[in-house]
Amino acid sequence: MAVKRAAKNGRRTVRQQLLYVRKNWQLYLFFLMPALVITIIFKYLPMGGILIAFKDYNVRLGILGSEWVGLTYFERFLSSPDFLSYLMNTLKLSLYGLLWGFPVPVILALLLNQIRRVGVKKKIQLLIYAPNFISVIVLCGMVRMFLSPVGPLNQLLGTDMNWMTMPEAFRTIYIASGIWQTAGWSSIMYTAALSNVSKELEEAATMDGANILQQIWYVQLPAIKNIVVIQFILSAGNIMSIGFEKAYALQTSMNLPSSEIISTYVYKMGLLAGDYGYSTAVGIFNSVINVILLLLVNAIVSKLNEGEGL
Amino acid sequence: MERRKIKLGVLDRSILTAGYVLLGLFVAAVVVPLIYVVVASFMDPNVLNNQGISFRIQDWTLDAYRRVMEDEMIWRGFRNSLFFSVTSTLLSVFITLLAAYPMSKKELVGRKFFNAIFVITMFFGGGLIPTFILMNQLRLVDTVWAVILPGSFHVWNMILARTYYQSISRELWEASQIDGANEIQYFFRILMSLCKPIIAVLALWGFVGMWNSYFDAMIYLNDANLQPLQLVLRSILIQNTPQSGMIADIQSTAEMAKMAELLKYSTIIVSSLPLLIMYPFFQKYFDKGIMVGSVKG
Asked: What is the predicted ipTM?
């Protein structure tokens, strides 16, 4: 049975495999080796360091020599009054970001697709891609200046609101500036997919008297459906891994009630306060939720996609 | 084209118009803030503070740019960022392209094993503190390598490159084998010459990503001489501490504050300009390079 299956898969004997490796040693030693070394040193070695989440880390004793403290740090985090707030801040920020931000690039691509003049389309694309090349720091700097009490938005409205200090404004600021920066660039994938829709199909639809909405619904949307689904799933699986850089750069001491997310908390507890073990435990908690979400999302996809996961 | 125009009904035309208006609004929303920053950077600090931007040429001055250009920290940041971005792009594109080659071969012994090793790192990691401790133990903290090395291999980019290689006809490889070329020769002489779009896209992403990031530099580089531009910008834009050298000659505190605000705009322009000038040259590679990304590897 096993032999049969092996033969069916075209599997080779150990001897054949060794011969292959010997003959193609360049593939391993020259091509793969650098990537493997980097991965093992910078990705796998730190995984061993996860142990400090269960230890009272002491620099002199090292990770292995430090004393075990069991699940103390996890208990401390889960029972801390701020735990729920940080968790909800993280979840809300990325969930709302996904709900508001996800449809925009798809709509943009559909709109761009209606422009028949290639030159005009290219110019618009060039413009709406631009913010993607601005750094997080510059983006957040711009946001802070535009929203400052003496900034242009207040001048325009004739008010002197200080939005950067309002916890209730933080998520809107974060998500809106995110859409401003990335929606154009994210539309590129859908635009490319739409440009592959066969012209005959579109013409046939026009001949049959389909109006523009019907064309979008019956011809264009089906053409990008797969990419949309894959993109949505990838983003949904990343809900807990929302980045540190932007949230940290938009934080002020006043908006912390809604801007403190798990990743910024890990940074502050770990590197600023020096509480290594506790901070690592919080990070692990975050990754565990992330993996559960990913598996969940993958299971849903498998169901929808006739058994084929990501 | 002509036929299309004739066929448009009233409903279609109104839908199209609504669509164009929507698109126009989005383009305006993207462009207006950018234009505002550009114009503001040329303003006289008093005018900017009192009434915002103006398009009257007599309100304009190059003073802010002179101050930014004369600032040693900005230039040092620029040089450091250039070094980080160029080095890390060269290294990471090279290592990633190399690794993708064996992984693109279905017959590679151990392909599944290596793939698992790489893909696992996309979902699991040691996290911030264990990585930091490791960097400390490797004596990499406060060296440029702490910022460059960890990102010098990208699994996702490897998958893109691998998918790209697989779209290239296998007959080329077979022909090169008959000619007696080994894998290294085939890779550099033939395969790479066909991979310009993917190389361009990976290089652009690598460069932009490094140029615009600040987190790794913030935690690993304490030495001000090594810090990239984004950290200099961070202290000016986010922490509100202008480089003291830029405004040292101004007497009154109020004038200083106005100038500091103006300097933010011109530093934004000076620091963002290189990428904004650079990316249009890559536009022709975007579609091709990015379509690869939507094909699952």
From this structure: 0.89
